[in-house]
Amino acid sequence: MSEYLNIRRIGQGGMAVVDLVKRKRDQATFARKVIHRQSVDSDEEWERTLRRFLREIRLLSEVHHPSVVKIIDFQVEGDELWYVMPYYKNGSLRAKMMDFRGDLDGSVRIFKSVANILLHLHSLPNPIIHRDLNPNNILTDDEGKYLISDFGISVTLQRKTTILSTTQGWGTVGYTAPEQWTDMANADQRADIYSLGVILHELFTGTIPTGRVSDEFPTDYKNYVARLLRQDREQRTPTVLSALRHLGVIERKIAEIVIPRESIQASINLAREVRGRQLTAEEQAQVLDVMLAYPDEESAAVETYAELPESALGQFSESSPAKFLE
Asked: Which residues are catalytic?
């Protein structure tokens, strides 16, 4: 007898359905992704489906990141494959897309949140490429933070796979990089960058790009999004880190920030005060923002860096890798 009681259907995509379920022993609610044998046409296709499902479970089990959906329980026997994950009642980004129409700051904020999750996945010793990033797979928790889900066609760069044909295209139309329809097995991190560009374009303009970037974007951002969306991946922004760093340059240029000397001194004083203790997240942000906010103010970075304890540098590298590397 199943430990979970179905409450209602909350989603469907391809062969998989997602149900809201209740665990009988403690009445806790979860989401359960399920694939039924009858949804597959042949034994051969069922075998491939099973292998993809097992790979998705393995990937999610290996990734330890607060913004990647966790697996709580699973079954991979019989005619029903499923895994249980937390239920996020706020749903996916899909339902909120139009809330950001014309809101460049809000659109960029979401873009950076998702990009930083991908930065973690792409920076793992065995990098994970999602390959199906779209608003349906970006969930929102109770605190308004974003998480990535649905790793059904994801792959690790160091593990070659024959589960997906090199000639069969996979992904979500409109969001999937062009190379995934012609050379799926060799799609790399640049495929995720393309999907990020589509999401940013749709957030701000309300439309999926079809060959060109909307003129609604300011010039700097239009050129930025165009590079994310290059059809030829060799001309596309090469890494998520590059995308984040380029975005930082645009934001600083547009803001035309001039740091008052008192702000620089406050940062230096803070660096001195934290010797012997851990920095809070707010303190880290304050120090890094002053160090990076205005590239011509070299003394801000040099003087603050000189005062920081060694332990703080380790914190920066873990909590804000993009800013730390910059």
From this structure: 132
- Pairing state between β 146-148 and 29-36: unpaired
Specify the pTM: 0.73
Mapped to the 3 state alphabet, what secondary structure does 89-130 carry? CCCEHHHHHHHHCCCHHHHHHHHHHHHHHHHHHHCCCCCEEC
2 phi and psi angles, rounded to 5 deg: -70, 145
Task: Note the pLDDT tens digit of each residue in 236-287.
Answer: 999 999 999 899 888 877 665 445 556 666 666 766 666 656 667 677 766 6
Buried b (16+ CB within 10 A) or exposed e, 126-162: eebbbbbbbbbbbbbeeeeebbbbbbbbbbbeeeeee
Burial per residue of 40-66, b for 16 or more beta-carbon CB atoms within 10 angstroms, e otherwise: beeeeebebbbebbebbbebbeebeee
Nearest Cα to 199, choosing from 158, 264, 160, 146? 146
Mean per-residue pLDDT, 161-181: 66
Strand-pairing partners, residue 20, are: 8, 31
Look at residues 240, 272, 271 and name the one whose alpha carbon lies nearest to residue 148.
240
